[in-house]
Amino acid sequence: MTSIEIPALPVPKVALVTGGSSGIGKATAARLAALGSTVIVGYNSRKEQAEAVVAGLQGSGHIALRVAIEDSASIAAAVKEIEDRFGRLDALVNSGGATTPVPIADLDKLTDEIFDRTVMVNLRGPFAMIRAFRPLLDRSEGGAAIVNISSIAARTGIGSSLAYLSAKAGVDALTIALAKVLAPRIRVFSVSPAGVDTDFVPGRSRETLVKTAEKLPLAHVTTPDDVARAAIACIVNLTSSTGIIVPVDEGRHL
User: Fold this and answer.
1) In sequence order, which residues have a C-beta less than 8 Å from that of residue 220 and are 6 or more positions away?
2) Which of 30, 58, 86, 175 has its CA 20 to 30 A from that of 113?
3) Annotated catalytic residue, options 161, 164, 195, 201
4) pTM exceeds 0.85
């Protein structure tokens, strides 16, 4: 009986994960390292946490690197560091972000300062990362992948603030547009979770997540690893796809 030959999966040799010190970024870094990637754990202010993540990753050669995604100078310095150390980048996961909870109906409480800061970090930041790292991603043998961590709030209009869901809608639009612009060398995806079991949203309790999850089709609280596995699928498995938005939301979008 002739065995079926299954081609090896295109595991990225070098991958950068922003927001890698906790939550979805941390889980994604762990998944990439387990596949055999050398992982750059990007962080803003949590250096010790990022270094602890690196210490716990499988394999060797991983590093923690400060990448303040709202600061162009910090991004440029990170590009130089990665180019000097590795000479390439095969996968970029834009997981870094922040939100300030403001009730959706309270338009007055959503100040210009909160709105601008939210959009800067969650929309301009990922774009600035992609713009800066494009030359290194173009060097990837066989093509690179970008995964933007978005939010189902962009689709449902329900989230931590109007500014946050608007920024994430922008991320999804950016994903679709850049998939065309960066093809064929670079594939671009959005992974769109909802209610992930992290401390990302200040003041949100796990009890709130559980109560929401009970009403969803899959009745499950999304974990950081659920989102990480979707990101890995985009990078490693969906080699004939680009410009798509992948919900990881227990069916909430339905």
Assistant:
1) 213, 250
2) 175
3) 164
4) yes
Give the start-end residues of each E strand in the chain.
14-17, 38-43, 63-66, 91-94, 144-149, 186-193, 244-248
| Catalytic residue check, 43 | no
Boundaries of domain holding 170: 14-246
pLDDT in tens, the chain (254 residues): 667 888 777 899 999 999 999 999 999 999 999 999 999 999 998 999 999 999 999 999 999 999 999 999 999 999 999 999 999 999 999 999 999 999 999 999 999 999 999 999 999 999 999 999 999 999 998 899 999 999 999 999 998 999 999 999 999 999 999 999 999 999 999 999 988 877 777 777 778 778 877 888 888 888 999 999 999 999 999 999 999 999 998 888 87
Residue 3 lies in a domain: no
- CA–CA dist 78, 75 (Å, integer): 5
Q: Is the peptide bond before 12 cis (omega within 30 degrees of 0)?
A: no
249 touches 192 (CB < 8 A): yes
Distance CA 106, CA 87 (A): 48
Does residue 8 fall inside a structural domain?
no
In a domain, 123, yes or no: yes
CATH number of the domain encompassing residue 228: 3.40.50.720
145 Cβ partners below 8 Å, 6+ apart?
Answer: 12, 90, 91, 92, 186, 187, 188, 189, 234, 235
Rounded Cα distance, 140 and 159, in Å: 36
